[in-house]
């Protein structure tokens, strides 16, 4: 998935590089506390791990094997800030030493594979972890869900970048469909592999999984076995890992236990708003896969419109508004509505859990 | 592979001397370096770290379909390869990383829009043909530039060059550990694969996923714990929280001129092609 030189024009490459520098700088600041105490060896080794695990062939069924991109896995294991730094390091090594990914496209690659996969993946993970019961397997399920979404999200951002600075005129609708379809498939593989690796780590060292620290009951009580053979359980402190105390750059997660941090929620909401607002513009310009198939096959007219077809947001355009603003507004309104409904559902679930 | 961090004597002001590259072990120890002692090898790393991406950027600037300009850039890059005395076979082998992308470029004529032309009975998009060809040429030249960079610079000098180019010290330190230990961990992961194979696992069926994933999980736990041990070892040896600076000499004006010659020529070619187009 490494973008080579010449794929996007120079202006787009430079702007994505600027965005990447900002994002990685921010993550470096957030991870600074951790790096100062844990030293540069730990993130260096985690980067080397991501590098090595990307070379492993994972069997994903039907005789095929897949490679891990590793963004979501790293986010689940070491937290988003450190994960962005580690993936950037991996991409730097690949570009400078192995000629993998263009030199001028380095910023684009960092943005797509370092920042987008980690931020989107981690946001989804936290949201899923918040609704799942507080069990060990929820960590695995949440991690898989994050990985599942992270790959198509990066593909979608790539399509957006191609729309701005692509060098060959390809119909965007078709490009988006192809990229999303293909990367949804890759995302499934990524989800399966991420879940399997997370399960293996959770089974042996759950305290090393950062995502597990956000789900309180995922952490079993520590059993201390004395020299005399007496077992003594030590309760896990609220929201914190049992085990070596580490500085936690993820303060909101540590204090609020299983609730997703406000930061993660805000990021997820912002990303969805940007995706919905920006990309609905492209989506509306050309019919989506099903619609175009329907059009060519001639059953488009036969499909009955749903009950909300006459509503104000029908067909993702705001009634009474023309031009480019309509689909953008419709997309943003959709995200806001989804967020409101989701928040209400979460609140209800939380109240029920508290009542029990 | 030389790492800057294996000597840590007394904290922040230690300056590590560059390791001397012995010709007989360099090929193995530095994996990617092809030591020939050419003028390109001798240039300070930070000048190459500026010049080669700049060269790639100039190639990207060439408008689609300006074949003469792309050809001129290719000649320029091949001249750099010749000047660096890199063996063509090894350069070609390293360029294979590009292959997955070639498939995409070959698909472009089929999906791009615009007027169609008939080639061997296939209806292909004209802009897709031109664009796909241009993409392929630009990506190939970009890979060539990156191969030249990796083949003429030790990883230690690369880190020192990045340091000189003001990459944050923390980042350089993490990068140093990553470069050093990626070799170790790749070998670790290979050993895990061998261990799995001799136990009858890993023939690519889905039911072996669990075994492969368990191996990857173990690899993570091992690397994390190794990181903790390395950090403790560093603390014992008086780690103060700052990485020692990597010694590198500043580039002279003549060296900057020498390094800048190729990108300057490429810029002239690209601008001429843009004006001509």
Automatic annotation (TrEMBL), chain A:
Region annotation Disordered: where it falls in the sequence: 236-258
Residues annotated as domain PDGLE: 264-350
One Pfam family matching this protein: CbiM
Transmembrane intervals: 41-60, 72-98, 110-132, 139-162, 182-203, 264-283, 328-350
Topology within the bilayer: Multi-pass membrane protein
Localization per record: Cell membrane
Biased composition (Basic and acidic residues): 243-254
Protein name: Energy-coupling factor ABC transporter permease
Chief subcellular location: membrane
InterPro entries to which the protein is assigned, alphabetical: CbiM/NikMN, PDGLE_dom
Keyword terms of this UniProt record: Cell membrane, Membrane, Transmembrane, Transmembrane helix, Transport
UniProtKB/TrEMBL annotation, chain B:
Compartments it resides in: Cell membrane
Keywords: Cell membrane, Membrane, Transmembrane, Transmembrane helix
Transmembrane segments: 50-83, 95-115, 135-155
Domain of life: Bacteria
Main location: membrane
Topology of this chain in the membrane: Multi-pass membrane protein
InterPro entries: ABC/ECF_trnsptr_transmembrane, ECF_CbiQ, ECF_transporter_component
Protein name, entry field: Cobalt ECF transporter T component CbiQ
UniProt organism field: Pseudokineococcus basanitobsidens
